[in-house]
Amino acid sequence: MIPEELLESHNALQKKYAKGDTIFHEGDLPVNYFQIISGDVKMSNFNDDGKEFIQGIFHPKQSFGEPPLFLNRVYPANAIAVSDCELFVLPKSSFLNLVKENASVSLSIIENLAQRLHYKSVMAAEISSQEPEHRLLKLFDYSITFFKIEKEADGYRIDLTRQQMADLTGLRVETVIRTIKGLEKKNEIKIINRKVYR
After folding, report:
1. Which of 21, 157, 179, 188 is most buried by its number of CB atoms within 10 A?
2. What are the tens digits of pLDDT across the range 66-75?
């Protein structure tokens, strides 16, 4: 996303979070820009029954939580460390100055936000109307494109747990497990060492 040396030149801090740590809470007013150095972060909500719905999972070199930062509105979801992670943390005022001074960074952020908006639109349509097989295949195919996953000998490896697949598609874990087995029988995917390959 933003080159590390540019973040460092604007005095971004490097902070470590342990797996399960909350980076910010739903309802917090944003004060920082976050970009991942290592590890993974998810943004999610919990309904009244405690069921989690994952809005997105973010990986190294990706940023998260920018829309509320630009809009000066509260976060619509929690950001939680999926694994031990290290982040660049840049105060809002420094981030906005960096964006104003660097046209290439502005374009990169616009492209990234547009990709996320497109993903949300695609998945919202899938979740509201499509069968589990279709939802999961759309999630896999979009993940391959969005995260620029490189093809391996066995195909494109989808690095999501069954729980994450369920939380991203609005399905139950049991449904995901059953559907994945069905997709394997139809040769739509491969399962190797419990990992899904498309």
Report:
1. 179
2. 999 999 899 9
Residue 114 placed within a domain: no
Distance CA 53, CA 168 (A): 6
**What's the predicted TM-score (pTM) here?**
0.76
Residue whose pair of structure tokens reads 């497990």 in the numeric block: 177
- How many structural domains comprise the chain? 2
Q: Which domain does 80 fall in, by range?
A: 4-105
Both tokens assigned to 173:
């874990």
Best CA proximity match to 160, nearest among 40, 1, 36 = 40
Residues 138 and 189 sit within 8 Å (Cβ to Cβ): no
Label residues 106-135 b or e (16+ Cβ within 10 Å = b). Answer: eebbeebeeebeebeeebeebbeeeebeeb
pLDDT in tens, 148-164: 788 999 999 998 999 98
Left if phi > 0, otherwise alpha if psi is -120 to 50, otherwise beta: which for 69? Answer: alpha
